[in-house]
């Protein structure tokens, strides 16, 4: 079957689906499934905009609300993960996944589903070591800390995914697995994004948690976004035993969704021709959720997952074939995910803007039904209980947050010794902007919805590329020329992106800024924001 993969959508659903329609008109190709690798921005109304961690100037309504209201329907089944620029309050309603609109499915904090026999997994958010070992404690209305920590990956989600034994066909993460750049055309990557060099050379670019999952799951395909650049790699895995067949992963990172950007890719994936066209639960994943349910944590307390170190009576939560069979029996062998989408918030009305609409903590009926069916803990219900009992922490109690240093890192131990949120205490290339966006007062920030009618896009798109059957990429720079040929080979229908001059930015420097307490962004994020300014 044909699978379309998109990078950061940034709420531009109309443009994304129009690009697919253009692809069909030009090449008579239509995907069976669309995957989006984060920054989807399922924004329903002005309150959702307030829960998105970006500066006010980037808060635009875009077009998702039309699909949420039913005005439009996604023309192809769309499955997505969360990134670091999301309506976190909306996605938080669906920690185990669910429909955000008809035909648009969110995988949850972490999840695995099946479509036509293809097993698709993903993990939402980005890695930050200072939040990695905490529970999912955040709830709206968020403060300046929780609006960011809400989308930070937690160790429990990685732990759950590491219990899987059956093969994964496709996996998605928003940030890249750390070290993946060593398995592709690193020289070309650094030519396009020279400000990655320090992190690439120190091997701190990307997520160590995602890298851990890549090594464990060894999926056939791994798709990412986040860094707003297209990059392909090929990773050959070592066999765990003599009896195990060698496995390899084809990695692809996509650019963001903008005209004349390489943000969308079509690949052919082997599938079960006898399988139905419905999105389905994955029985092993459901069994893992049931097995790990006792580990659910909704506090800020840092804790480690069970491991074989003599401190835990149980450390292996992988499931048996019998447990998987029990899940199938519970569902009467019908794994079809019910189409039970429900509106849980008012939808944006361009004729009646509500700029002062405040977010509220909502328990979604989809999550309630899912948890009741499989005997799982509703994380949001647990948070609300903690709040009512006076034992909750964070924004729910308006307690004082932990002291954060200028890089956003709380001073606590982590199982990962490097946090890529800050490489040095001072960087002359940094600008006065928080590394993950938005330092303004959340209670008074302006809301600037986009006009009701989005811009029309010409038929001169160069956003589309049909992936060749082989993504053979060398493992080192010695074969860079072969990698460059990959970009030109196969069924490519893509005109390569034209280089644009980066907009000059004001930089801060000097001793007067060293102790100012102003949060900064890394050089690579600085360039990402600059590119967004240019595009606007």
Automatic annotation (TrEMBL):
<feature type="compositionally biased region" description="Polar residues">
    <location>
        <begin position="415"/>
        <end position="427"/>
    </location>
</feature>
<keyword id="KW-0378">Hydrolase</keyword>
<comment type="similarity">
    <text>Belongs to the lariat debranching enzyme family.</text>
</comment>
<dbReference type="InterPro" id="IPR029052">
    <property type="entry name" value="Metallo-depent_PP-like"/>
</dbReference>
<keyword id="KW-0464">Manganese</keyword>
<dbReference type="GO" id="GO:0005634">
    <property type="term" value="C:nucleus"/>
</dbReference>
<protein>
    <submittedName>
        <fullName>DBR1 enzyme</fullName>
    </submittedName>
</protein>
<dbReference type="Pfam" id="PF00149">
    <property type="entry name" value="Metallophos"/>
</dbReference>
<feature type="compositionally biased region" description="Acidic residues">
    <location>
        <begin position="396"/>
        <end position="405"/>
    </location>
</feature>
<dbReference type="GO" id="GO:0008419">
    <property type="term" value="F:RNA lariat debranching enzyme activity"/>
</dbReference>
<feature type="region of interest" description="Disordered">
    <location>
        <begin position="386"/>
        <end position="536"/>
    </location>
</feature>
<keyword id="KW-0479">Metal-binding</keyword>
<dbReference type="InterPro" id="IPR007708">
    <property type="entry name" value="DBR1_C"/>
</dbReference>
<feature type="compositionally biased region" description="Acidic residues">
    <location>
        <begin position="431"/>
        <end position="442"/>
    </location>
</feature>
<keyword id="KW-0862">Zinc</keyword>
<keyword id="KW-0507">mRNA processing</keyword>
<feature type="compositionally biased region" description="Basic and acidic residues">
    <location>
        <begin position="485"/>
        <end position="514"/>
    </location>
</feature>
<dbReference type="GO" id="GO:0046872">
    <property type="term" value="F:metal ion binding"/>
</dbReference>
<dbReference type="InterPro" id="IPR041816">
    <property type="entry name" value="Dbr1_N"/>
</dbReference>
<feature type="domain" description="Lariat debranching enzyme C-terminal">
    <location>
        <begin position="235"/>
        <end position="380"/>
    </location>
</feature>
<keyword id="KW-0539">Nucleus</keyword>
<dbReference type="Pfam" id="PF05011">
    <property type="entry name" value="DBR1"/>
</dbReference>
<keyword id="KW-0408">Iron</keyword>
<feature type="compositionally biased region" description="Basic and acidic residues">
    <location>
        <begin position="386"/>
        <end position="395"/>
    </location>
</feature>
<dbReference type="InterPro" id="IPR004843">
    <property type="entry name" value="Calcineurin-like_PHP"/>
</dbReference>
<dbReference type="GO" id="GO:0000398">
    <property type="term" value="P:mRNA splicing, via spliceosome"/>
</dbReference>
